[in-house]
Amino acid sequence: MTNKKLLILLIIIFISCLVFLCLRLFRFYTDTQSDKIYKQGIEFYNKADYQNAYYNFKQISIFSSYSAPALYRQAMCAWELKDNKTAVNKYSKFANTFKNTNFAPEAIWKLALLELDKKNKRKANQYFNKLIEKYSESDFAKAASYQLGYFFHLHNDLEKAKKYLVEYLEYAPAGRYSLEAINILKNYSESELTDSDKIFIAESLYQNSKYTESTAALKDVPTEKSWFILAKNYNKLNNNAAFCETVLRGTGYNLDKQAYEEKEILDTMLLYIRKSGLSTKEAAYNLIRSTKNNNLYPLSLFIFSKYVDYNSSIKNYEKIFTAYPDSIVAPDALWFVFWHYYKNKDFKNALKISKLHTKVHFDYNIQPKIIFWTAKIHIKTNNKKAAKSLLQNIIYNYPASYYAFRANAILKKNKAPWRADKKTKVHNTSKPENIPLNQDSKEYSLINKFASLDDYVAIQNFKLNDDYLNSWLAARNGNKTYSVLLAKNSLLKNPKEPFTNTKYKLAYPIYYENSINKYALQYKLSPYLILALVKEESAFNSRAQSSVGAMGLMQLMPSTARLMDPNLKNSEALFDVEYNISLGTKYFAHLMEIFNGNEALCVLAYNSGPNAVKNWLNSTKSTDFDEFVENVPYSETANYIKKVYSSYWSYMNIYEKK
Q1: Beta-bridge mates of residue 168
Q2: Residues 512, 576: contact at Cβ < 8 Å?
Q3: β partners of residue 545
Q4: What are all long-range contacts of 376-380, with beta carbons under 8 Å and residues at least 24 apart?
Q5: How far is CA 5 from the centre of its chain?
């Protein structure tokens, strides 16, 4: 290359860099201005001053990176101003810009409603059909089913009307238009509605608390198809006789796994035991006879096994996980047999049972438990290599579980594994900076723009079906409990997620840190353990109230609260955050005095009461605290200590692990 050509190339590169730098500076300047203008527009919008809001959003340059959010907000303003022409223009531009993404459905839905407002039903139906055909999984597509059903009803196309209305009820039985859809379907004769149609109608009526009407809708539907909804109705109507009769008749048929979940059926069968008026064993035997020849048999056999002699129950449990490994009760049955052999020091048979745990229906609570106790067998039999491998397996595959907490303590040879860290204060770094979505997606880019402008309302409008995103939004909108629930359920679907994933901060957030630190310090307790207690007691809902009357963040019974503060007059005071935490920590400190500073026993006592824990300690023969926990006779309390320490372990790993 000649010197002249090299010089020209360098000049071109220099000019290109200069242009790029100028563009970046221009974008930075326009974005700085746009940020202020946009947020001012939000202020006007929130005051219902849509005209000035529109003017602000309109000022944002098309060269700004905030141009797409501004376009959407212009559409929102035009919609509120009933300026249909402008709204159609803006929503159309937005839908076209983000076609084939999850943002388009909301704009298309608004376009359809705008056409309906103009009495242009043909155009509106084109939009509704587009939602159903192209965005079938969106909430807006389901709502479009109702609109199309209503349209065809008006035009006497009964077959199409029924098809779309039933589709809507199937997806949204308690939806906004559900009762309107049912009112239209009432015009159909019995012969025009299939059994499936009637079941969807009945389920919708049930979810709208219309139990008598729901029951009537099923009068001509065969029992094998209708019994479960009928039983739910009779339960709500407090008609115990009809409920019990329906359950016994209904469980005589095979479970339609496409229609109902095994867990729902199991809960209904357990409810029958309580409501039958018979002895528990007799009621359970009725279920055994009813289900003997169908796929509900493992559920009834599992229930029945609770009420027979111990040896018979073990045989029954072995039959369940051997013959019905896919049943939801198979993991528990496997555990009971494994634990039977372990307690009797029959480690050879326990290890045989352990090998089957991967062959049964997966249960997050059971699999790590069996792996942990298999490791304990290897420790007892001096097979340290196998034990270490299994303990590491738990930490890797179930990092947030109670058994990962215990596995880590064994591997680290922690001599005081239950002693929580009292020195480390909790710090409110719980809000993840990044939005929990695939950052390479077009959705992430736009949502990030909305989020940087604190415009969470706009994000919610799109109704994106992503638990993590919705958890993130709920946290920012102050719905702490819902946020935790969504994030925790999502993590359970992928329990291998490492603690470094910021999504954990949604499942294990830090709230009320000032009060927790203050009173934990005052009573010489671990702030993170108190935080874990608060999370498991109330999921940070300061207005939580249990069925037995426990109140507030730390779920204090009024009698317990008065023990800590004799001056308490009105139990409503327990809904006060500061006051509730002060009494809850004081009560935990009181338990620490009773149990000589043994925090694990205090956690048990916080749930079951100190007297129950003392009785269990007096009756136990084991010196292994892990065995003591597994043998706690109250399943709720045994699960409670595991949940609290799994939360404590998770919090320490998320926020304090260096």
Answers
A1: none
A2: no
A3: 551
A4: 376/626, 377/342, 377/347, 377/350, 377/351, 379/410, 380/347
A5: 64
Cα–Cα distance measured from residue 505 to residue 330, given in angstroms and rounded to the nearest whole number? 33
> H helices of 292-346, where?
297-304, 310-323, 330-343
3-state secondary structure of 545: strand
Predicted local distance difference test score (pLDDT) of residue 25: 44
Give, in order, the Cα–Cα distances in Å from 180 to each of 183, 187, 233, 265, 353. Answer: 5, 12, 21, 30, 55
The mean pLDDT of 412-429, rounded to a whole number, is: 88
CA 170 to CA 608: how far, in whole Å? 42
Tell me what the pLDDT averaged over the chain comes to. Answer: 91
Q: Could you tell me the two tokens for 406?
A: 């215990």
d(CA 371, CA 333): 15
Instruction: For residues 564-568, give the mean pLDDT.
Output: 95
- Residue 641 and residue 616: Cα distance in Å, rounded? 15
List, for residues 278-287, the tens digit of each pLDDT value.
999 999 999 9
Answer for the pair 105, 138: CB distance below 8 angstroms, yes or no.
yes
Contact 143, 128 (CB under 8 A): no
One-letter identity of residue 244: C
The sign one gets for the Cα dihedral 33, 36, 39, 41 is negative
Name 551's bridge partners. Answer: 545, 556
User: Which token pair is 339?
Assistant: 């634990």
The DSSP annotation for 450-480 comes to HHHTT-HHHHHHT----HHHHHHHHHHTT-H
Query: Residue 157 and residue 150: Cα distance in Å, rounded?
Result: 10
Rg (CA), the chain: 30
Contact in structure between 429 and 655 (CB atoms under 8 Å): yes
Which of 17-31, 360-374, 528-542 is least confident? 17-31
How far apart are alpha carbons 291 and 303 in whole angstroms? Answer: 12
**Residue in the block written with tokens 């205090």:** 602
Q: How far, CA to CA in Å, does 426 sit from each of 475, 511, 579, 655?
A: 18, 9, 19, 8
Beta bridge partners of 556: 551
CA separation for the pair 301, 299 (Å, rounded)? 5
**Four-point Cα dihedral 615, 618, 619, 620, nearest 10:** 120
- Please state the three-class secondary structure of 90-102 as a single string: HHHHHHHHCCCCC
520 contacts: CB under 8 Å, gap ≥ 6: 422, 526, 527, 529, 530, 585
556: three-class secondary structure by DSSP: strand
For the chain, what percentages of helix, strand and coil (3-state, to nearest 5) are there?
70, 0, 30
Which tokens belong to 410?
């064994």
Q: Which of 435, 395, 424 is nearest to 411 (CA)?
A: 395
Alpha helices per DSSP H over 155-194? 158-171, 178-185
- Per the CB < 8 A criterion, the answer to whether 276 and 286 are in contact is yes
CA count, 13 A, side-chain hemisphere, 20: 6
Query: Quick check: 84 and 114 in contact, CB under 8 A?
Result: yes
